[in-house]
Specification:
Layout (H helix, E strand, L loop, with lengths): L1 H7 L7 E5 L5 E5 L7 H31 L1
Antiparallel strand pairs: 1-2
């Protein structure tokens, strides 16, 4: 994999960058937007699908309750 990167002249960017302060504490910076990564896209689309299914499911439950009266 490293040979391939050397040929292209590109180095992969890390998603999270860790910096150490002088007092010994660590800071973490997110360098890549989560929606641009594969795992971020999977998580976002899963949440969208669950929200849509939840809305449809609640409408079905409401219709069933109205019909039973």
């Amino acid at each position: 994999m490293s040979k391939k990167l050397e040929k292209n002249g590109k180095t992969p960017k890390k998603m999270v960058q860790k910096n150490r302060k002088a007092d010994g504490t660590e800071e973490y910076y997110i360098t890549t937007a989560p929606q641009k990564t594969l795992t971020g896209k999977i998580i976002i689309w899963t949440l969208v699908a669950l929200m849509a299914l939840g809305s449809v499911g609640s409408l079905i439950v409401a219709i069933i309750q109205i019909m039973s009266k």
